[in-house]
Amino acid sequence: MAGWTADEMPRLDGKTVVVTGANSGLGFEATRAFAARGATVVMACRSVDRGADATAEIRADAGGDTDGTLEVRECDLASLDSVASFAEGVADGYDAVDVLCNNAGVMAIPRRETDDGFETQLGVNHLGHFALTCRLFPLLAAADGIEDGGSERPGSGTPDGAGDARVVTQSSGAHERGEMDFSDLNWEESYDKWDAYGRSKLANLLFAYELQRRIDAADDPVGVRSVACHPGYAATNLQMRTAEESGTPLAAAVMRVANAVFGQDAATGALPLLYAATADVDGGAYVEPGGLLNMRGSPIVGRSNDASYDLDDARRLWEHSAEATGVDLSL
What we know:
The chain is α/β, with parallel strands linked by helices. The chain has helices spanning 25-36, 48-61, 80-93, 120-141, 193-217, 237-246, 249-262, 266-269, 271-278, 311-325; strands at residues 16-20, 40-45, 69-74, 99-102, 165-170, 224-229, 286-289, 299-301. The protein is globular and about 55 Å long.
């Protein structure tokens, strides 16, 4: 039986979707799919020029126009000031945000630091998105959300069939490699680029699940669901950037072969994110490919590793993130 495809997404006319890293790879394909369903997509891009190029490509592929609206805004997740400016701009331009896709990321790069002194993989992949989610949360709480026809969600306070806004956080199967070391979160004592990537992806999951727990525990009902996902092995320019950063020509050659042999295209890799954003899934769910080793295929609801559900680590990470970014949620 064929699995879920983007053709099964509901119409999103009148909905506002924010996608980080919207100009390439998974974010580009997700943006294309949201726009095809009539959404207004705010493309949060580090480079406005590359965002404009992506917009032109989506419109050209759609025959010169799309059902939805595309708007490019600058957002550099490696700068908390940039994140704050982006969120302020969205709040000035929109009354609500129906879906926030925390998609952008960097993978297995040499150690460097963000503008605010965080190790870059943790800073971009987790802390930047933590700050962005907290700053946009009032707009998410104000949204009508995505109608999915599902039953009432435990703790959601929403009536049967009503929609919730979604926060979708993109993780990776590499989270299984990650370990939380709160004595050296920024890798100042030692550094391994793949271990750091795994930690950042584990942090994504700890954050996504803790956000849902805090929503469920709120005194007043909050119509927002936090859902996590991972794309499987999607052949995107993320792998090639990793290979280029290594400075070894052989690494780039090996990555090209791996992408060709094992990878699925970016449009298929974006399906878990699209499913998490629009299908009937519970808050706190983990959406992943349902094929071989959960690296390929149509999206299903699965389960991440045990470490990602550690309540103490989730609490400690949240407290660290709030202190580091100067942003927190009041539910």
